[in-house]
Design a protein that fits this description.
The protein is α/β, with parallel strands linked by helices. Helix content is 30%, strand content 17%.
């Protein structure tokens, strides 16, 4: 078997244009069998913000420059003229559908992020934060409707979420229509802050292009000829395009579909159960390297069928270091493999991540998972913005604040908003899969930490916003 490399392309996001809903996630302690989608390792999301327990001091200035100490007392923002009036946040998540494994990670991370950023008070500028959580079922039409309900019926001040890139792109348009700030997390589609950008949308998740740029050098060391498989919706399109551009720029070739529109990719419906016909095309392509983009439901059966058909013996497979349950269920044959990782709780070494890990274990009896950090980071950014505007969710004020060289320290170190397109520059990791049976999910070890500037994507704004790109 050739050496297997891994790249985290989950998300995402990050993601479905049209998919059949997956079953509701089973209890987090159950590891899924090889024919089912991986289940979340985090316990179900809390129904209210966690109770304060010696929360660390949030940054005193609107723009954070250092991580707050984990044992200091919280600093209270000046009281707003709107003090006492709740700030309503609409949290879009996936509790059912193809990406339901990621919903609890986002929700738990967001709750702990609010606790951390507010010093345990769950208030900012004297205003209590009220979170209204809605399930999008990983479907763009459902997500668009529940987001509209949040805006019209719940009168939320801001929106946060969602795992599906297809839903995220639909919410982008609503944010512009209703003039409300939308923080996209963990959807990875580049288009969210690319050709579908509008000034009301920010992201705390990484983009497909950041994934591809971070892994470009590693990919080109694996071979010279490539083929890709990806899910047939927004996340898959963005990821495949990012990898195609990186490989072609480095001198690599794709053995089939080698054109700007097909980007060397065999697209697969996200609700596929039998991957055999697609994998046969992969084998027929006779490439040295297979790049796999996948997320959510189908991950385990896809890899099981790849193993059964001998794909791993025929070529090097480059794919994602996934969530803990997926690793445990389907990566036993990949021990020693290296690849890009968005977040694993054992990799960052800083006070914020230490706090997150400790609190998550206390609350949910498991360590944080793949997108827990993303929910936590989204809450940090939301609270920092509201502190900067003294509790006023007015979008013009928040946009001005976030575009003023805004940065903060979170679980992965320093995060920075790029003013022109609202991409969040952040750390990524090259990790090695060490095992899949550690009882504390200590499955990986650090190989290389990739600094935020090393994976900064190009500015891809179009139309009326193109001039914003520097």
């Amino acid at each position: 078997m050739k050496k297997l490399a891994l790249l985290a392309l989950v998300v995402i996001a990050v993601i479905v244009v049209a998919c059949a809903p997956a079953p509701t996630a089973v209890p987090p302690t159950a590891v899924p069998p090889p024919t089912t989608a991986p289940q979340p390792t985090a316990a179900p999301q809390p129904t209210k913000a966690p109770e304060p327990t010696k929360a660390p001091e949030p940054t005193k200035a609107p723009v954070a420059t250092t991580a707050p100490a984990a044992t200091t007392a919280p600093t209270t923002a000046p009281t707003s003229a709107l003090a006492g009036k709740p700030l309503k946040v609409g949290l879009l998540t996936d509790q059912t559908g193809a990406l339901a494994i990621y919903g609890p990670m986002l929700e738990n991370g967001f709750a702990l992020g609010l606790e951390y950023a507010t010093g345990g008070t769950n208030t900012v500028a004297g205003r209590p934060i009220q979170v209204v959580t809605k399930d999008t079922a990983s479907k763009a039409d459902v997500g668009q409707q529940v987001a509209r309900d949040l805006l019209e019926k719940e009168n939320v001040d801001m929106l946060v979420g969602v795992p599906s890139s297809g839903v995220a792109l639909a919410v982008n348009e609503l944010a512009k229509q209703y003039k409300k700030i939308y923080i996209a997390q963990p959807a990875a589609a580049t288009e969210v802050t690319g050709k579908n950008f509008n000034p009301y949308v920010f992201r705390t998740g990484r983009s497909n292009e950041q994934d591809a740029l971070a892994s470009g050098a590693a990919l080109l060391k694996l071979g010279k000829t490539f083929v890709q498989i990806a899910p047939d919706y927004a996340f898959g399109y963005g990821s495949a395009t990012g990898f195609y551009n990186v490989v072609k720029k480095g001198g690599g070739k794709f053995t089939i579909n080698d054109s700007a529109d097909k980007v060397g990719t065999i697209y697969i419906p996200q609700d596929a159960k039998d991957f055999t016909p697609y994998l046969q095309k992969v084998l027929d392509a006779k490439a040295e390297v297979l790049i796999v983009t996948w997320a959510g439901a189908g991950f385990v059966p896809l890899f099981t069928q790849m193993q059964q058909l001998g794909v791993f013996k025929s070529m090097t497979v480059y794919t994602g270091i996934a969530d803990n349950a997926s690793l445990k269920a389907s990566f036993g044959f990949a021990i020693g493999a290296k690849g890009i990782n968005v977040y694993h709780y054992t990799l960052p070494k800083n006070a914020v991540n230490d706090w997150l890990v400790q609190k998550h274990k206390e609350k949910f009896k498991t360590p944080p998972d793949l997108f827990t950090e993303g929910g936590f980071t989204a809450a940090q950014m939301l609270v920092a913005g509201l502190k900067g505007t003294n509790g006023d969710p007015d979008p013009d004020k928040l946009i001005k604040f976030y575009e003023s060289n805004f940065s903060f320290d979170g679980p992965k170190g320093k995060y920075s908003v790029r003013p022109e397109d609202h991409v969040l520059l952040q750390t990524l990791y090259v990790a090695e899969l060490a095992n899949v049976d550690d009882p504390d999910f200590k499955f990986v070890k650090l190989v290389t930490e990739i600094k935020p500037e090393e994976s900064a994507p190009s500015c891809t704004l179009e139309g009326e916003y193109k001039a914003r790109c520097k």
